[in-house]
Amino acid sequence: MERRLAAILAADMVGYSRLMAEDEAGTLTRLKALRKDLIDPEIARQGGRIVKLMGDGMLVVFDSVVGAVECASAVQKAMAVGEAGSPTGRRIAFRIGINLGEVMLDDEDVYGDGVNIAARLEGIAEPGGVCLSDDAYRQVKGKTALRFKDLGEKTLKNIPDRVRVHSVELDLAQLSPEAFEALTGERLELPDKPSIAILPFENMSGDPDQEFFADGMTEDIITVLSRVSDLVVMARTSSFAYKGQSATVAQISGDLGVHYVLEGSVRKAGNRVRIAAQLIDSLTGDHVWAERYDRSLDDIFAVQDEITREIVVALSANLAYGEESRVWSGKTTSFEVWELLSRTMVAQYKFTKEDNREAQQLARKAISLDPESEIAKVQLGWALIVGARYHFVSDPDSAMAEAETLIGDVLAKNDGNADAQALMGNIHATRRRFEEAIAAGKRAIELAPNVATNHAVLALTHYYCGEHAQSLVRIRKAIRLSPYFPDWFLIPLGEGYRGTGALDKAREVFEHLAARIPGSLLSETRLASIYAELGETEKARHAAETILSISPDFSVMRWIDGVPFRQAADRDRFVAGLLKAGLPE
After folding, report:
1. How far apart are CA 387 and CA 363, in angstroms?
2. Structural domain of residue 238, as residue ranges?
């Protein structure tokens, strides 16, 4: 036997016995197709060699740990998207473990402790996940764009020593430049304007409860810079994708397509705060500007303005930035209110019933302390609308009405509030007041041209109006401003493709959505409809089965009534697809 150091990949299919018992011939056919079209070509591309096949798994040897990890992540991401069209209970998924160790090889098998550890790592991986040993992780760290999560030391069956384990982060919300191009049809390149990503400021206080303070600083700087028309600023969802990560500036630049990156830290003690910030040119690695501020909390808003002004000056592009663009203009001058609103934002982004309730309570308290605070009213408005849409509140109609009253009050006093305009556009569209929705959406973009959500909300309105080409333009702009975008951005993107006749692209987008939020009516209804429209009867039927398993009393007409279509043709097209898939009228 040949004895050598190698990267060993162990893969095993989840629920193999159950799937074989339910449909032996169908399962084997699908497995063969997956190997032929996806798994074997990817192994070959990364320089791997299959040394052992089992009915439900395989062992593969690679000369390079990077090749093994890249292969595993590519297969798992493709599997997540490709299996999205199958019913939840019938989807094929693999667990994968990777180790670096000395092995013994012959023509038909591979032996040794290195193999045993890889097999045990596969056993503790999540379905669709990849785990690797610390030995393997040390070889791949910093050599790939992938991100990893430290799972700590684990006791593995029949392995005497505990093994430190890492998992590969395979969140489909984190797009590669290749996936960005596949979904949008556009390349992720540096824009012709100065572009920047504001990374989450690091909490140096030693107190986890102060995390909101650091996040609030980051959020505010993103907000004010997004108002500068000649500057491309990545949205919060994209910047915060790197929170707690060890990604390099060059990697972040490549992921997001930006020239500059701002890093910072916050240390708060009593009534004093120390803020450090540095602006880095990602192409050269040079520090364009760096500064440290030691101030009283009473000066916190002045420091935020000073940092944003320094950034604009450092980028030396004669960008428009004046007193009218101050971070806290029209917001609040109270640190206590700012603290409440920072906590509101943290709760807002978690999208659970409990966090939505907390966001509403915090925003209401902020309003009680500062009844003129526009940002507090806007945050409460969004919390109410999210509560209504996701049925987090007992009376959705009342919540929507309260949100409309709140935002109407803000705009009556200040129609230059971009956040309020965007939110009112969303409310108008829901109420089927389409002209007003379009006008409010355009006004929000005019006021804050670099806020991804503003473009996405207007894209959704264009979709409801049947203006699909315009919808595509807007949602592509939104995704460019936030390559790590929220799931719902894929709705106007996919529907824009459908409306312009690009049905294969629409299917690809909706399959990606289903992979990101499996078992959701939001994705499965669109899959059922598009599969039926494309004549893929079996996939449409599977999607319909998944819908009925999620909601046994599902009705096509009741579902469609919740979508404010302006054009009867768009409504009828969606309905026809759902009915053709076999769903009850």
Report:
1. 14
2. 177-325
